[in-house]
């Protein structure tokens, strides 16, 4: 009888652990391979234009730097701006253009959250985009700086577009 009880306990344990293991979710993360592909796409986009050289920063969902690239001749002052655009877009998970509209208003409308302007790292102008998995989970952000804000944002969007199939 003891052997039967022991075998039954082992069988139930195996079934339980198997069910727990199968129920664990996998989450898309930003790794170096994904970040490199994004930066490559941004640099390829810039190569087809007359834009000034760029700084590209990619952070994970905790705002930790995964990859940084500074193109030859990119403004040194844009290094911190690119990093802060990425941090802004992950910590307040909206494009930095939208953060600017929250802080300063849009088309004559009053600002909705003017106090955000007091946040040290916050960059309230275009060039930072959150990176979301296909299920909507925030997994990081990209910040681009060196050209105009619109061009920086266009380059960041090209980077996102290049990996959309990998964001499962």
Structure summary:
The chain has 168 residues and is an alpha+beta fold. The chain is 45% helix and 15% strand. The chain has one domain: Haem-degrading domain (Beta-Lactamase, 2-Layer Sandwich).
Per-chain topology:
Layout: H1 2-23, H2 32-47, E1 55-60, E2 65-70, H3 77-91, H4 96-104, E3 128-132, E4 138-145, H5 149-162
Antiparallel strand pairs: 1-2, 1-4, 3-4
Helix pairs in contact: 2-5
Descriptive notes:
Strand 1 (about 55-60) and strand 2 (about 65-70) form a beta hairpin. The chain has a single domain (about 30-165), classed as Beta-Lactamase, CATH 3.30.450. The radius of gyration is 22 Å and the shape is elongated. It is an alpha+beta fold. The N and C termini lie far apart (about 50 Å). It has a four-stranded antiparallel beta sheet. It is built from five helices and four strands. Helix content is about 45%, strand content about 15%.
Task: State the main characteristics.
168 residues, alpha+beta, Beta-Lactamase
The global form is: elongated
CATH architecture: 2-Layer Sandwich
Helix content: 40-55%
**Nearest-integer average pLDDT:** 89
Count of all domains: 1
Instruction: Give the strand content.
Output: 5-15%
Gap between N and C termini: 50 Å
Given helix and strand content, the structural type is: alpha+beta
CATH superfamily: Haem-degrading domain
Radius of gyration: 22 Å
Do you know the CATH topology? Beta-Lactamase
SSE string: HHEEHHEEH
Q: What profile does the largest beta sheet have?
A: 4 strands, antiparallel
> Which CATH first-tier class would you pick?
Alpha Beta
**Which regions are unreliable across 5 or more consecutive residues at pLDDT < 50?**
none
Strand order of the largest sheet: 2-1-4-3
The count of DSSP E runs of length 2 or more, i.e. the number of strands, is: 4
Count of helical stretches: 5
